[in-house]
UniProtKB/TrEMBL annotation:
It holds the Pfam family TOBE_2. Residues 365-376 have a biased composition (Pro residues). GO terms for molecular function: ABC-type transporter activity; ATP binding; ATP hydrolysis activity. Residues 330-380 are annotated as: Disordered. This is ABC transporter ATP-binding protein. It comes from Streptomyces roseirectus. InterPro entries: AAA+_ATPase, ABC_transporter-like_ATP-bd, ABC_transporter-like_CS, ABC_transpr_MalK/UgpC-like, Mo/tungstate-bd_C_term_dom, P-loop_NTPase, Transp-assoc_OB_typ2. Keywords: ATP-binding, Nucleotide-binding, Transport. Residues 5-235 form the ABC transporter domain. GO terms for cellular component: ATP-binding cassette (ABC) transporter complex, substrate-binding subunit-containing. SMART domains: AAA.
Length: 432
C-alpha cells in the first residue's frame, strides 16, 4: 500500500519566533516521487523529520492518507527513512542490519526470507555476511536501503542518501533508486541540495528557500517556467544569466530592454508576452537568459524572434561535447543573495508569511533592513555564458556577434517575481 502525505500550513520553530519551516503546504500523492530541493539550511531535513515523527510540528497539520497524524508515534506511521550517513549498526552484519527492523516488529520470527528477498531485489546477496566496515560507501548505502525496504513501508523518506558517494556512483545509484521506487510504487519524498539530482529523479520538484516553498512542479516546468529569480538561478547548469535591465517602451518606437552598453530590441510585431512588458516601462527588471538561448552567429543569420548584440570573449570552458563561452557584453549581472547560503539567522516576527526580497542590488527599491548581506559570489569572467559547440574558434579577446532568442527570454520584476512569460503561462503539452 502506498500513502498520500499532506502538509497543511506547517511551520517549525526550534527557537521561539524563528521559523525554519514557514507555512509549508505540500501534497505528495500515492506512489509519487517528490524531491525537496533547496540550499543548505533551508529546512529540508526538518520537513522530513516532522513527517517521520522525529520532530514535533510547531503549527499546521500533517495528514497521512487524509488522517490527522501530527501526534502519531513514529513506529505507527509505516514510513521508512534513509539517511545521508547510512546509519548502519557497525557491530552487525549486512544481514543483521537489514533484519533489524523486522526483528523489532516481530520478535522471535525468522526474518531470513524477507532479508533474502530484499537483498535479491537490490543485488546485494553477497554482502549480507559482511560488516559495515568491510563495505564500500555505495555498498553501505545499498544495505541501508535494504534495511529501509525490508518492512515494505508505504512511504520512503530519503535525506540526501547519495551525498557521501562519489559522482559516478551517485549517478548509478540514482538510477537504481528511481527504478526501485517506481517498481514498488512507493510514495517517496527525497531531499537534496543537488539540482541535477532533483531534476533527474523527481516526478515533481519542490523548491524551498529559507523554509518557504518557492515552487512545486514537474522538472520540465520548474526549468522552463521558474516562478521567481531564485528558482531560475538555483535550477540549471550553467546557472542562468541574470542581467539588470530597464524596459524602454516609447509610444512611437520599438520596445527594448536596455542592458547598459547594449539593448535587446524586442522583435516586431510584438508577441503577446512582450506586449505585457509595456507596463514595466522605465522600471528596472532582471533579464534571465539560459545559456542555450544565445548563439554565436552574425546578424544576417538571425531567425525571427532573435535579437543581435555583441560580446567580447573573456574565457572559454571546453567540456568535450560542448563549450561554455563567457562573454563581456557591458551589462551588469544581477545578484541573488542567499542562493547558496541558509536563510538569515535573524528572528522574524511570528505569522510573517512573505519571503524576504530576492534581490538587493536593484534600485530605486532600496534593500529592506532584513535583507541579508550578499553572499560572496564566485567571480566568473564576463557577464553572459553561452553554450556552444566545440567547432567554433572562440579566442579570448575576440568581439563576436551574438543572437539572443527572445522567445526564451525571462523577465523578473524588482522583487524577483517572473513577469514574462506571464505567471499564468503554460507550456504546450508534449503529447499534443
Ligand atoms: N535541533 C535543532 N535545533 C535548533 N535548530 C536546528 C535544529 N535542527 C536544525 N536546526 C536549524 O534549522 C535550520 C534548517 O535545518 P535543516 O537541517 O532542516 O536544513 P537542511 O535544508 O536540511 O540543511 P542541509 O542541506 O545542510 O542538511 C538550520 O538553520 C538549522 O541550523
Amino acid at each position: 500500500m502506498t500513502r498520500a502525505i499532506s502538509l497543511h500550513d506547517v511551520s517549525k520553530a526550534y527557537t521561539k519566533g524563528v521559523r525554519v519551516v514557514d507555512g509549508l503546504t505540500l501534497d505528495v500523492g500515492p506512489g509519487e516521487f517528490l524531491v525537496l530541493l533547496g540550499p543548505s539550511g533551508c529546512g529540508k531535513s526538518t520537513v522530513l523529520r516532522m513527517i517521520a515523527g522525529l520532530e514535533e510540528i510547531s503549527e499546521g497539520e500533517l495528514l497521512l492518507d487524509g488522517a490527522y497524524a501530527n501526534d502519531l508515534p513514529p513506529a505507527e506511521r509505516d514510513i521508512a527513512m534513509v539517511f545521508q550517513n547510512f546509519a548502519l549498526y557497525p557491530t552487525m552484519t549486512g544481514r543483521a542490519n537489514i533484519g533489524f527492523p523486522l526483528r523489532m516488529e516481530a520478535p522471535g520470527a525468522d526474518p531470513s526470507p524477507q532479508v533474502d528477498a530484499t537483498a535479491r531485489m537490490l543485488g546485494i546477496e553477497d554482502l549480507l555476511e559482511r560488516y559495515p566496515s568491510q563495505l564500500s560507501g555505495g555498498e553501505r548505502q545499498r544495505v541501508a536501503m535494504g534495511r529501509a525496504l525490508a518492512r515494505r513501508p508505504s512511504a520512503f523518506l530519503m535525506d540526501e542518501p547519495l551525498s557521501n558517494l562519489d559522482a559516478k556512483l551517485r549517478t548509478h545509484l540514482r538510477a537504481e533508486i528511481a527504478q526501485l521506487t517506481t517498481g514498488l510504487g512507493v510514495t517517496t519524498l527525497y531531499v537534496t541540495h543537488d539540482q541535477a539530482e532533483a531534476m533527474s529523479l523527481g516526478d515533481r520538484v519542490a523548491v524551498l528557500r529559507g523554509g518557504v516553498l518557492q515552487q512545486v512542479d514537474t522538472p520540465r516546468n520548474v526549468y522552463a517556467l521558474p516562478r521567481n529569480v531564485f528558482v531560475a538561478a538555483f535550477i540549471g547548469t550553467p546557472r542562468i544569466n541574470l542581467l539588470r535591465g530597464v524596459v524602454r517602451a516609447p509610444l512611437d518606437g520599438a520596445m527594448s530592454i536596455n542592458l547598459g552598453r547594449q539593448a535587446l530590441r524586442l522583435p516586431e510585431p510584438l508577441s503577446a508576452e512582450h506586449k505585457l512588458l509595456r507596463v514595466q516601462q522605465g522600471r528596472e527588471v532582471i533579464v534571465g537568459l539560459r545559456s542555450e538561448a544565445i548563439r554565436v552567429a552574425p546578424g544576417r543569420a538571425a531567425r525571427p524572434g532573435e535579437a543581435l548584440i555583441t560580446g567580447l570573449v573573456r574565457h572559454v570552458e571546453f567540456q568535450g561535447h560542448e563549450v561554455l563561452a563567457h562573454f563581456d557584453t557591458g551589462s551588469a549581472p544581477a545578484q541573488v543573495p542567499t542562493l547558496e547560503s541558509p536563510r538569515p539567522d535573524l528572528p522574524r516576527p511570528p505569522r510573517r508569511r512573505r519571503t524576504p526580497p530576492l534581490l538587493t542590488r536593484l534600485r530605486p527599491h532600496p534593500a529592506p533592513p532584513e535583507t541579508p548581506p550578499p553572499t560572496p559570489q564566485v567571480v566568473v569572467p564576463g557577464d553572459l555564458i553561452v553554450r556552444t559547440t566545440p567547432d567554433l574558434d572562440l579566442r579570448p579577446g575576440a568581439q563576436l556577434p551574438l543572437l539572443v532568442d527572445l522567445t526564451r527570454l525571462f523577465v523578473f520584476d524588482h522583487r524577483g517575481e517572473r513577469v514574462s512569460p506571464a505567471p499564468a503561462h503554460h507550456l504546450p503539452d508534449l503529447a499534443e
